[in-house]
Amino acid sequence: xxxxxxxxxxxxxxxxxxxxxxxxxxxxxxxxxxxxxxxxxxxxxxxxxxxxxxxxxxxxxxxxxxxxxxxxxxxxxxxxxxxxx
Length: 85
Description:
Blueprint: E1 8-10, H1 11-21, H2 27-38, E2 43-46, E3 49-52, H3 54-63, E4 67-68, E5 75-76
Parallel strand pairs: 1-2
Antiparallel strand pairs: 2-3, 4-5
């Protein structure tokens, strides 16, 4: 069985996409944007986690307090971006 190797993308690229868009997000719209930009099946990593799906990355970022606003209308809190890459 052959498995397709997927690229692993740093969470900062998703955070930068969120900030540069100027948009407010819902989980669904963010997931669609991540899949559209990076491709379905792409894995993501951060300073303290790796191998995350887009859905897992959204949960991870939310759990770290990176979003500001209600679940269906939030923005990335730019002041919460760590300096590691």
